[in-house]
């Protein structure tokens, strides 16, 4: 087996007759590993986000066992380690608040332990970007293995996409079209298996983008969680990690500007979650790739919707898998990709795709006959969002993409919950619902509140969509004409904080503009009278988060984590050179 120039990273821990070498080997032997098991072998860390409070990742112990088999078969030693995990459904107030914390946990574990490569096991929404951010910063060879989409739920004979249908059924209950008894039957049926949400929500989008970035094996993203082929892919990832360890191929060599272009193009081609925008911006920031919101707009202008999957289409990710999976999508949009980009296989995108074909054109289209034309994502700017905002046009109502209407402003989520169903609320179908204090600092954590509920009195009139504007995010499974990620957020003094009830808001998704029809001088007057009433969290992680989180247009990472590592004293070379010399 070959080793990288300079030898294996783990040799710095285990080689030599120094006291540190003794201590490290002794620690391994105390765990039951003989010297034969680890000396001179690539050590592959299995970064496992398994947790009993993260239902989507509950099958990861079995996946880790399969990774372990692959590592051993390829001549390495697998060592599994835990980090914090982020469960979208149970974790409060929002997993996004803790994405950066998990990224720090992943980064520091990878850097601090004797790993020559790592396999990142992520699934539920934020676990994948957190692992990618951490691995990008640690820059030790890494490969991602996602958990795969869960089996589809079936309710009253209809196949469900969990989140997408939940919103519809919830509106049906509120409008009096569905009984609470049926709603409870739905609750029992909604999650029939382990795995992440089965439509193209945030988890499936991120799994797809990992393939687009070149950070996982081709064809792995869409394999269903409960399909035996996912275990086979896990074995292959383990084996490939050994190859990465010996070749020394690092995330920073894969996560290039071209790789991000490819990932964004795929996100647009599958009609993916807007949450991925924030995550890609954050990952790019970790490797020093100058990615901006405008690049999303540029690529949106040329990338059509190629996959008929919910929430933008009709099918679930399982059908995408059976129609050829993400390689077939990449093959279909190959003219829009940088096919020379290097991937975790050690080969280029083009080399990875020779035999990929879409077997079902009703699921994966050809480039000359897409399901929707380009511009499925609008990047908006204007006096209401000088730093930018986004609108998933492909999931919005076409008649609302150009709209002007009076604002109905909610100060925060509590205010919204108290008033949105008030029969006396002055709101019509033409109103623009505005929510503030829902951004990175204001939430805090930029919760998924961007799909503001439509007041019941309008639902009963048959209104199914309205223009909504906020500094929040939106679930990847949600839909509607929801302007999201308004930046700077209201809690940071952005113009959203200055809007008043009745101000006319003008949205033009085609022109990429979002404005409030108030003069600059009036806005300045309002700004000088503005008092920021936001309470600062008194202590702990949340206080640090609020002090250091960047705005949505910069990926909501911490200001002190952006960029390549500037601290060579934290690298093992420096630590061991100094330490070994002193003993
Ligand atoms: Fe975990 Fe959707 S709730 S992936």
From TrEMBL:
<keyword id="KW-0408">Iron</keyword>
<keyword id="KW-0028">Amino-acid biosynthesis</keyword>
<dbReference type="InterPro" id="IPR056740">
    <property type="entry name" value="ILV_EDD_C"/>
</dbReference>
<keyword id="KW-0100">Branched-chain amino acid biosynthesis</keyword>
<dbReference type="InterPro" id="IPR020558">
    <property type="entry name" value="DiOHA_6PGluconate_deHydtase_CS"/>
</dbReference>
<keyword id="KW-0001">2Fe-2S</keyword>
<dbReference type="InterPro" id="IPR042096">
    <property type="entry name" value="Dihydro-acid_dehy_C"/>
</dbReference>
<dbReference type="GO" id="GO:0009082">
    <property type="term" value="P:branched-chain amino acid biosynthetic process"/>
</dbReference>
<dbReference type="Pfam" id="PF24877">
    <property type="entry name" value="ILV_EDD_C"/>
</dbReference>
<dbReference type="GO" id="GO:0051537">
    <property type="term" value="F:2 iron, 2 sulfur cluster binding"/>
</dbReference>
<comment type="similarity">
    <text>Belongs to the IlvD/Edd family.</text>
</comment>
<feature type="domain" description="Dihydroxy-acid/6-phosphogluconate dehydratase N-terminal">
    <location>
        <begin position="41"/>
        <end position="352"/>
    </location>
</feature>
<dbReference type="InterPro" id="IPR000581">
    <property type="entry name" value="ILV_EDD_N"/>
</dbReference>
<dbReference type="GO" id="GO:0050020">
    <property type="term" value="F:L-arabinonate dehydratase activity"/>
</dbReference>
<feature type="domain" description="Dihydroxy-acid/6-phosphogluconate dehydratase C-terminal">
    <location>
        <begin position="363"/>
        <end position="556"/>
    </location>
</feature>
<keyword id="KW-0456">Lyase</keyword>
<dbReference type="InterPro" id="IPR052352">
    <property type="entry name" value="Sugar_Degrad_Dehydratases"/>
</dbReference>
<dbReference type="GO" id="GO:0046872">
    <property type="term" value="F:metal ion binding"/>
</dbReference>
<dbReference type="Pfam" id="PF00920">
    <property type="entry name" value="ILVD_EDD_N"/>
</dbReference>
<dbReference type="InterPro" id="IPR037237">
    <property type="entry name" value="IlvD/EDD_N"/>
</dbReference>
<protein>
    <submittedName>
        <fullName>L-arabonate dehydratase</fullName>
        <ecNumber>4.2.1.25</ecNumber>
    </submittedName>
</protein>
<keyword id="KW-0479">Metal-binding</keyword>
<keyword id="KW-0411">Iron-sulfur</keyword>
């Amino acid at each position: 087996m070959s080793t990288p120039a300079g030898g294996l990273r783990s040799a710095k821990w285990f080689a030599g007759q120094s006291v540190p070498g003794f201590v490290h080997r002794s620690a391994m032997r105390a765990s039951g590993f003989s010297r034969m098991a680890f000396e001179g072998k690539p050590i592959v860390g299995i970064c496992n986000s398994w947790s009993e409070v993260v239902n989507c990742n509950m099958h990861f112990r079995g996946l880790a066992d399969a990774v372990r088999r692959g590592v051993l078969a390829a001549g390495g030693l697998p060592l599994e380690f835990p980090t914090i995990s982020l469960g979208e459904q149970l974790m409060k107030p929002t997993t996004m608040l803790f994405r950066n914390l998990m990224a720090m946990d992943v980064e520091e574990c990878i850097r601090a332990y004797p790993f020559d490569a790592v396999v990142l096991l992520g699934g539920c929404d934020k676990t994948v970007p957190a692992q990618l951010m951490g691995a990008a910063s640690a820059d030790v060879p890494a490969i991602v293995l996602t958990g795969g989409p869960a089996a589809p739920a079936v309710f009253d004979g209809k196949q469900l996409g969990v989140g997408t249908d939940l919103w519809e059924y919830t509106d049906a209950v509120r409008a009096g079209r569905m009984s609470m008894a049926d709603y409870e039957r739905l609750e029992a049926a909604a999650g029939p298996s382990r795995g992440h949400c089965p439509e193209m929500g945030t988890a499936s989008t991120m799994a797809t983008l990992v393939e687009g970035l070149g950070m996982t094996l081709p064809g792995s993203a869409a394999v269903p969680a409960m399909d035996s082929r996912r275990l086979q892919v896990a074995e292959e990832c383990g084996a490939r990690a050994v190859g990465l360890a010996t070749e020394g191929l690092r995330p920073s060599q894969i996560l290039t500007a071209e790789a991000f272009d490819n990932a964004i193009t795929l996100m647009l081609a599958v009609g993916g979650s807007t949450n991925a925008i924030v995550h890609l911006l954050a990952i790019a920031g970790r490797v020093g790739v100058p990615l901006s919101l405008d690049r999303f707009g540029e690529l949106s202008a040329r990338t059509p919707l190629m996959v008929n999957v919910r929430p933008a289409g009709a099918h679930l990710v399982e059908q995408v898998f059976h129609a050829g999976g993400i390689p077939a999508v990449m093959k279909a949009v190959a003219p829009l990709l940088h096919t020379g980009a290097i991937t975790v296989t050690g080969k280029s995108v083009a080399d990875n795709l020779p035999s990929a074909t879409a077997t079902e054109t009703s699921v994966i289209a050809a480039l000359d006959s897409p399901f929707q034309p380009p511009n499925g994502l609008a990047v908006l700017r204007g006096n209401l969002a000088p730093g930018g905002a986004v609108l998933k046009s492909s999931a919005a109502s076409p008649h609302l993409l150009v709209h002007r209407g009076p604002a109905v402003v909610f100060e925060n989520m509590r205010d919204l919950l108290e008033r949105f169903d008030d029969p006396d609320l002055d709101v019509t179908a033409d109103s623009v619902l505005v929510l503030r204090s829902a951004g990175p600092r204001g939430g805090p954590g930029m919760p998924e509140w961007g799909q503001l509920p439509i007041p019941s009195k309008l639902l009963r009139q048959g209104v199914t969509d309205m223009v909504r504007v906020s500094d929040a995010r939106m679930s990847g499974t949600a839909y509607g004409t929801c302007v999201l990620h308004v930046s700077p957020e209201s809690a940071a003094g952005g113009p959203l904080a200055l809007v008043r009830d009745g101000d006319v808001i003008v949205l033009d998704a085609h022109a990429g503009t979002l404005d409030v029809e108030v003069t600059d001088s009036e806005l300045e007057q309002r700004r000088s009278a503005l008092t920021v009433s936001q309470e600062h969290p008194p202590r702990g992680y949340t206080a640090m988060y609020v002090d250091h989180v960047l705005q949505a247009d910069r990926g909501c990472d911490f200001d002190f984590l952006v960029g390549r590592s500037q601290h060579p004293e934290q690298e093992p070379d420096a630590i061991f050179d100094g330490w070994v010399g002193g003993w």
